[in-house]
Amino acid sequence: MRILEEYREETVINKSRFIACVKCTRTEEEAREYIEQIRKEYPDASHVCTAYMLGENNMIQRSSDNKEPSGTAGIPMLESIRKSGMSDVCACVVRYFGGVKLGAGGLIRAYSGAVADALAHAKKSEEILLDEWKITYPYDLSGTVENWLRRNTDIQDIAYDEQVTCTILTDRKDIEDTIRDLSKGTVTPVYEKTVHTEREIQTEE
Fold this sequence. Notes:
Elements: E1 2-3, E2 7-13, E3 16-24, H1 28-41, E4 47-54, E5 60-64, H2 74-84, E6 89-96, H3 103-121, E7 124-137, H4 142-152, E8 154-160, E9 164-170, H5 175-182, E10 190-200
Antiparallel strand pairs: 1-7, 2-3, 3-6, 4-5, 4-6, 7-9, 7-10, 8-9
């Protein structure tokens, strides 16, 4: 499970503003670039604390307290990423100090909570495997075959030549039988390959 698109969320705790920014980054270079982007965007912030977890089996894990007391920001943020069950996450929490000290416990709760809330509310995607098929059929079957494909699969390309050739992605396992039935045995789908793709995880309101 990954973040579908960058997400930001702001909270105010004892007059300090905390802006949590989270994004999917698949390499350490991408994570560092994102951190640099956020720091440039908020040059007057009191702190921009960071944490990221990525790579195979989440092996790459880094965090920074950015001059907050040691252990009160980066590591708690990293722990929130771990608890989220998400992969390839970079989190930055921008703080504007409001004049009231929060203490070590308050800082830990503020930074970990900011990241946990942002990850909970961000749109998410999951990696799925889809099969690519090519289906070639005569024009007189467009009404049946093509209409069914549009309703039940993800059409990638349609080429209109002497016949219609449709390239589709689907996770359906009955595609061959269904197309044969629709075409009364005259059309046979051709399997091309299996591809990895991302699909948004729909959450219940």
